[in-house]
Amino acid sequence: MVLEDLPELRTMNELQSILLDVSLSVCPTLPACTLQISLQCVCVCVCVCVSSVFQPPVLTEMPKSHTVFSLEDFNLACEATGNPTPTFRWLKDGELFGSETEGSGTLRGDNSSLDMLEGEYRCYASNSLGTAMTQAVKVNVEPQPVLMKQQVMREQGDVGQSMVLSCNPPESSPPPSIHWMNMNLMHITRSERVTIGLDGKLYFANLMESDKKKDYICHAQYREARTILPATAVSLSVKPSNSVAHGGKPEFFHHRNHSQISALKGNSVTLECLPKGLPTPKVEWKKKDGVLADTTGQVINFDRWLHFDSITLDDDGEYECKASNAHGSITRSFTVTVEAAPYWVKEPQNLMYTPGETVRLDCQADGVPRPSITWRINGQLLTGTAKPRRTVTGGTLIMKDVNIGDTAVYQCEAKNGHGSILLNTYLYVVELPPQILSPDGFIYNVTKGRDVALHCESFVSHSDTGALLSDPLLYPRISILTNGTLKLSDVSHNDSGEYICSVQNTNISITAKLDVFRDEILTGPQAVRVVQGESAFLDCDVDTDPRLRDYQVVWKKGNRKLEETSNNTLKVTDVQLNDSTEYSCEVITKVDNVIAQGSITVVAKPDPPSGLTLSNAEGVSVTLSWSPGLSHNSPITEFIIQAREEYHTEERKWTWEELKKVPGDFNHVELTLHPFSTYRFRVIAINEVGRSRHSNPSDHHSTPPAAPSINPTGVRSNSAEPGTLIITWDEIDKRFHNGQDFQYEVLWREADGSNVNWNSGRVRSPPFIVNNTGTYTPFEIKVRSVNALGGGPDPEPEIGHSGEDKPEEAPTGVSTTVMNSTVRVSWKEAERVRGRLLGYRVALLIEFNDLTHVTEIKTSAEVTGLRLFSEYELMVTAFNSKGESPQSPPHRFHTPEGVPGPPASLEFESPTEKSLILSWSPPAETNGVLQGYIVQYQQEVESKNSPVEILNVNDPKVKHITLDNLDPNSHYVFKVIARTKTGQGPPITRRGATLLDGEPPKNITVTSGNTSVNLSWVPGERNRNHGFHIQYLKKSGGGGWEKSEQVNTTQGFYTLTGLQPGAQYHLKVVHGNSTHWEGEAKTVEPRKFATQGWLIGLISAIVLLVLILLILCLIKRSKGGKYAVKDKESKEVDSEARPMKDEAFGEYRSLESDGDEKRSDSQQSLEESKMGSVDSLAEYGDSVDIQFNEDGSFIGQYSGRASVPHGNESSGPASPVNAVPPPPVAPSMSSILNRPS
Fold it and tell me: Is 1105 a domain residue?
């Protein structure tokens, strides 16, 4: 027993428990047994006197109305429990049917005649405590559906026409389900175009040639008869036709604009719209007096049905379907009236009373229309005669001063025109001592703000039960019910505590404890708007009592559970339009649950407009109308109208162009078009998310011709030769020709005004040529559009010229003004240009080098960037589009002497740690006579204010200088400046320092290979090069010290080769008689061949393969005969000489290149494994020719690096100016061998 059952403790289910307590006084001498009844945390142990437990008939199985096709189908269930065991009897059509039975009342049609079983049945179950009865049920008897012999029906239609294939199955009261299949029992593919209607017929909105089949078979499934019959077979032939190529406005197969639908609450209802037309119409549903989404209806069957699985009273109303295609739309409306068979609003309970009490049985039912209610006692109808103790008022039966004789089963039945319902209620009158039935010490858990009921169910002779509280409760949140229940509303933590309930005038009482917990949603999910395809997040901020540690958050989409988790955030990824609905967050604890509501509104691009139509066509104007598509929760803000002109454009060049925009609340627009054109239109809808797909194109629309409305632009002369006038213009697009026989009328006359008459001519395209016009003569020209209906407006004239010729005379009066490296040239304006002057060219010549400067149409120019201390020769020409004039006489001028440029180079040598030799080369541009050089150098110090040393070299032939007493620990900045009598030029600047003596390396890294050892070190940045030797001694096996060749400190590494694998060596770095470093190294042990199992297996396989090939060759040779090698080779040559396809050649090349890549990789690894120290050194850095004294010290000067012959392992020193970074450590031989190929 659970907490929710406590208010019903006085029902028949508690009768046994009550009688158990009574049995202690009724039969104390009988053996007793213990019965435990679980009341959550309370267990009550009582003794049972079995012989005293009585129970009236309680129906457990009841019959249902049905249709029978055979005796096996007849089954009317009637089962009941009770003590004493009930007996059963049946009434058929109001008369006794069969004999009374005991134990089971179920009827079966075992030995009956099928025809005699049809009728109305009611079952009665009785014992000494009363009689229970069932509702009346009907049994219909029908023959088994039988397939009648039918011939194949033949139907014929044209492509694009609609078609209906009928299905005529045998009739049955439960109608059959219809399935259309072919001979292979494969279902006919359904779509928007091909649909099965509610009447079982197969509807084609338009026929296609693929619909041609000989085996359309209609199968009828009779579920209650467990039978499937192939009812109708149809052969459909489809013929091609051009009469319906463009289709038409949709129509409905059922020619009714309005339908009245009556439905019963809870039943299944389907509204049907089956359109026909080409293209296949789209169907949309809406509720005219409400919102379709708020109903229980679902759009199914390719939008052809609006289906209510279990219709409700709220679904009552007006509905409309709309079918549309590119040619228009049509609507159909439905009025749905929902009524209801009787259903219970309040049911009477099985209760137990003591003698003298007043009993009230409430039986309230509702329905449409409202049902009537009747009462029975033990199956006998109560008459309208009033009795002093019994009153019947509607659905209420009141009995006063009840006694034991009133114990019975009472029936309440509600009826209206749609059916009836019946309830059996047991009333037991018994005399018992007072008891409190609710458990003692029960703990009630409730959350803050909820209502709670503390139960104190009792059984007493009179209403002596009362709730005695530890503190007086005098405020309206608390009420005490007549059954002793204490009800608290909107509880708070102050309501926690212990409550006492007692029976008045007795010492019987119980206690109850109330614990109030905190459980609330601080912030529930919000109303979220999200774009289709993105993610939506709903948050649920929960605050629970610390005592309620374990809680779960259940998210629901509508009424469907999504997930049960402890996560307070719901993430919906890739949201789609069907995700738009209400969402709830439910927090569940062991005490209670709280719910908060939110929503997700998915916004998406609108659906494309549909149903484009053209109307009100007058001249070049037409009205375009359309039906907007679904906006998907975001209002349409704008429509874009696009047009495509098809008459004047090749089909492959058709393009859609934006014609107009209108606001989103428009569904039509008036368009002004070009004459003599053919258009199609389409519409695009726009909302905040983006653009819809474009609509289907409209029908073609053609406009009538008219005279041209515009003239060509860009009228100009494009004359190329003297004596001719070539007039050209920008052609007009064909869309603006406005009619047939379009041409251009060209008019011209000389611009001097001597001739007022216009010359004219017509052409279909530019250019237009006029001869004998002179050289560069000005003309007035204009071009007008004309067609078969007239000409365009009179154009304004333009000025054009006949062809040009070269200028005849050179410019005169050339003069110059020199300013350092700039010369200003001036001349007089050219005469006899014979065309449009484009400008002048100034040509300068210096030592056979030309310098050309082009000017605009002006008589002076400045030429900059001239070489100083030089002589120039200058000529000027005029030019037009035909060429240049003759050159002006040569004009000579000199540029003055200037300061020289920087020296071309600056190099260093460091003979000692304190001296440097600076060497430089003369400037590339002396700009005069060199007077000498100035040498400056400055020591770099942190204060940056060291003195600048200045040395003058007065002999320009001297190009080096020695600087002594330099600080070897510092860097210097050196500058060399050249000078002429004009002044000093810019310096060349270098940074540098002297070289240090240095010493052989002392920090060496050793890397071992199989037969070699790599030694690497980091050379000093400014150290002078030193030569040293590496000595090595094998530590085992005897032998003496061995010495390497001379090694330079600047090398950075060296490789000892020819060592024994797996041996330990002692190493030394020796310079003269001094040892600068000592260390040890051990070479790597080689892998033994015998341990390479995979290699042995590979070799064995190759040997075996070679043996097999040899055996095959011997067998072939043993067959005798000669092999025509020459013939075979000639055949191979012929086959190879055939041209190969590009694809085959590409494949051959790719395979070859792959092989080359693999071969080169393997060869590289093998070659690298053979290299000694010389090859390893050659991989790193360049070599330099260095000379040494006998002790290995450096001699010579700094020089650039150059290649050296193979075998010279030394490298050059680091530069004192730009230090070279140390070379990388040479790789070991083992790393080279292990390099991946």
Answer: no
Are 505 and 595 in a shared domain?
no
Cβ-proximal residues to 717 (8 Å cutoff; 6+ apart), any chain: 725, 726, 727, 728, 779, 781, 800, 801, 802
Name the DSSP letter for residue 12: G
Q: Is residue 15 part of a domain?
A: no
Q: pTM of the full predicted structure?
A: 0.43
Q: Are residues 989 and 1002 in the same domain?
A: no
Cis peptide before 767 (omega within 30 of 0): yes
Is 925 in the same domain as 1074? no
Handedness of CA 384, 386, 391, 397 (dihedral sign): negative
Residue 300 has pLDDT above 90, yes or no: yes
Who's near 721: CB < 8 A, 6+ residues apart?
A: 803
Domain holding 823: CATH number?
2.60.40.10
Domain membership flag for residue 1201: no
Task: Tell whether 379 and 248 lie within a shared domain.
Answer: no
Average of per-residue pLDDT across 200-210: 92
Do 917 and 887 fall within a single domain? no
Three-class SS state of 157: strand
Beta strand segments in 518-630, E: 519-523, 527-531, 536-539, 541-544, 552-557, 560-565, 569-572, 581-588, 593-603, 610-618, 621-627
**Full residue range of the structural domain in which residue 933 is found:** 905-993
On whether the CB atoms of residues 992 and 971 are closer than 8 A, the answer is yes
In a shared domain, residues 598 and 652: no
What does the block give as tokens for 1180? Answer: 């790193």
- How do residues 1136-1188 score in pLDDT, each as one tens digit? 333 333 333 333 333 333 444 333 333 333 333 333 333 333 333 333 333 33
What is the C-alpha separation between 715 and 731, in angstroms, rounded?
10
Strand 871-880 to 883-884 pairing? antiparallel
Q: What is the pLDDT of residues 420-445, one digit of tens each?
A: 999 999 888 887 777 888 899 999 98
CA neighbor of 814 nearest in space, from 798, 796, 830, 801? 830
Is 34 or 962 the better-scoring residue by pLDDT?
962
- What would the mean pLDDT of 582-609 be, rounded to a whole number? 89
Are both 736 and 772 inside the same structural domain? Answer: yes
- 192 and 290 share one domain: yes
The residues facing 335 across adjacent strands are: 260, 318
